[in-house]
Specification:
Low-confidence stretches: none
Structural class: alpha/beta
CATH class of the largest domain: Alpha Beta
Shape: globular
Radius of gyration: 22 Å
Mean pLDDT: 90
Strand content: 15-25%
CATH topology of the largest domain: Rossmann fold
Oligomer: single chain
Helix content: 25-40%
């Protein structure tokens, strides 16, 4: 039997359950695993599992499932470790419904927890799912049970004239991410997002962060990637991948509020980031590749990871509140010439030019 495994999120890797389950599935046939999502990639690197879990491409979980299905795999496992069974099951429901042609999908959710479960998203897989649930000490949960739990007390039923999306499993005082941007904080366990003409207008059960909404811009709310809480809550020992970087020219990249795309810059020499959360996440990821960052921030930090790391020689520049985007744009236009990456001969000279531009725009800045 050809078995595909889609690994989602850092917690399933950090907990050790991803490797254990992949090894376990080898009793049933040949197994191939690939990542679905972005934040799990760092966890795979830290766990030295790149040879076991393919992290070479940035894919949504449903895309990873579809690829296995197109490759004629007999069964595909989606393994996840949500912060609750509600969020985990909601995630599985969303993935399955975003897939093409009803793939042969079984979800393993929160192994190691008392409510750890197995879900056969297609009825012809129930026998296999039940066998695995017994062997792994997990409970069987049906898709019908999940749908019933998800759609009862639907706050969106009370809203008309806008696109409304319920957030399953939210807890009070959690960051709400839409496509990697924090757009607010929950103050309730019943949270929904409203959007009109692609722009988020309200956060029912939470406090909307207008600056985050502006950064996010126009979206398709029904297809958007929504997360709550911390992007990675485990306390880890980060793995640093060393490389020989002695060269005559250096590549510098610019990242503006898009930290989840940071892996494509793992071979550059320096990254300039804009935004507090972007800088925190980008610096943490790039620490694994020994790449320093220059972060342009304004002190508007939401806690998005439990603990962040940054490479030696990184520099954090805090400008006046609300000015990070404007200052970043000036740097992008004047120093990067509208290019995502540039080559420079001297990194210290580059830093001096960057600080000079910032000083001209916003002289009241702090270096951290």
């Amino acid at each position: 039997m050809k078995i595909g495994v889609v690994v989602h999120g850092p917690q399933i890797v950090d907990s050790g359950h991803a490797q254990k389950f992949i090894d376990f599935l080898e009793e049933y046939g040949s197994v191939k695993a690939r990542l679905g999502g972005t934040m799990g990639r760092t966890a795979v690197i830290d766990a030295h599992l790149e040879d076991k879990i393919d992290i070479s491409k940035k894919l949504f979980p449903s895309q990873s499932v579809d690829i296995f299905h197109q490759e004629k795999y007999d069964v595909i496992f989606l393994i996840n470790y949500g912060k609750s069974s509600v969020t985990g099951h909601a995630f599985g429901y969303k993935v399955y419904n975003n897939c093409q042609d009803q793939p042969p999908l079984i979800q393993m959710e929160r192994p190691g927890e008392a409510d750890g479960s197995v879900v056969a998203w297609r009825s012809d897989l129930e026998e296999l799912a039940r066998d695995i649930s017994i062997k792994r000490g997990l409970v069987m949960v049906s898709p019908d049970e999940i749908k019933e739990a998800l759609f009862k007390e639907e706050p969106c039923q009370e809203v008309s004239g806008a696109v409304c999306r319920k957030i399953a499993g939210a807890s009070p005082s959690e960051n709400i991410f839409v496509n990697g941007i924090v757009i607010g904080k929950s103050n309730s366990s019943k949270v929904s997002i409203l959007a009109e003409n692609g722009i988020i207008t309200d956060l029912i059960g939470g406090d909307l962060k207008q600056h985050g909404v502006e950064k996010l811009g126009k979206i398709n709310l029904e297809k958007a990637i929504i997360k709550t809480g911390l992007l990675r809550k485990s306390q880890v020992n980060p793995r640093i991948i060393r490389s020989n970087k002695s060269k005559h020219k250096f590549t510098v990249a610019f990242v503006n509020h898009a930290a989840e795309d940071i892996y494509k810059f793992k071979n550059v020499d320096l990254v300039v980031t804009v935004g507090d959360d972007t800088t925190l996440v980008a610096a943490d990821i790039l620490y694994r590749f020994n790449i320093p960052v220059i972060g342009i921030t304004d002190g508007d930090l939401d806690k998005v990871v439990e603990e962040g790391f940054k490479t030696k020689d990184s520099l954090i520049i805090e400008v006046n509140a609300g000015w990070d985007d404007f200052v970043g744009l000036e740097v992008f236009l004047k120093l990067f010439n509208n290019q995502e990456t540039i080559e420079v001969e001297n990194l210290e000279n580059f830093k001096s030019k960057l600080l000079q531009i910032i000083n001209e725009v916003n002289s009241n800045y702090k270096l951290k």
